[in-house]
Amino acid sequence: MDPQPPKDSALWGGHTDGAIYERSCRSSADAALPPLPVPFWAAEEPPPIDPAALAQEAVDKMNLLGPDIASPRVGGKYTVGVPMWMWVNPSPTTFGPNTATATAGSVTVSATAKVASIRWSMGDEKTVTCQGAGTKYKASYGMAKSPDCGHQYRTSSKGQAGGRFTGTATATWAVDWQVTGGGGEQGAFTEVRESDFAVSVGEMRVLD
Questions:
Q1: Domain topology for 51-202
Q2: What is the pLDDT of residues 107-123, one digit of tens each?
Q3: CA atoms within 13 A on the CB side of 160
């Protein structure tokens, strides 16, 4: 019906959802008479459930964050030309894997998120993309380069604001999801989170 009757109308029969419709019926014996409209209430058909939207809802529950940067460390001092090792501290919210579910009606989606790569913008117009968390440096490695995630600054940070290079570590999270309990529907998408860092880089001093 347009307009719909007021909510206090007896036509609603105590319902607060759905809508009031009119149905007109007549038999062949009443063909000469105009049809008599009969009002009735009907529930609105719920919108179809989108599993991909449920997967996004599951990811929102994970509270994913940018990388937890361990190196370059806050307050650390580094040297031009000396290999820098970059790595992060893995955790469910900063590296993964992280899992969560979301349900709507009879549909439940399970999602798993894990960092696929981290793109380091070093502040000196150079970028480094690492496929994992990086390798933690040990003194026994000496001047060796990191086997999987490193950088060498070619200039000092003396002329930079605050005397430090400022950069970002941007993590790309790979999310895989599937409908549980049958149906077999599945999919994948990515999420991006980033963290900031600053690094002081000086020239090597040669002592006489």
A1: Immunoglobulin-like (2.60.40)
A2: 899 999 999 999 999 99
A3: 17
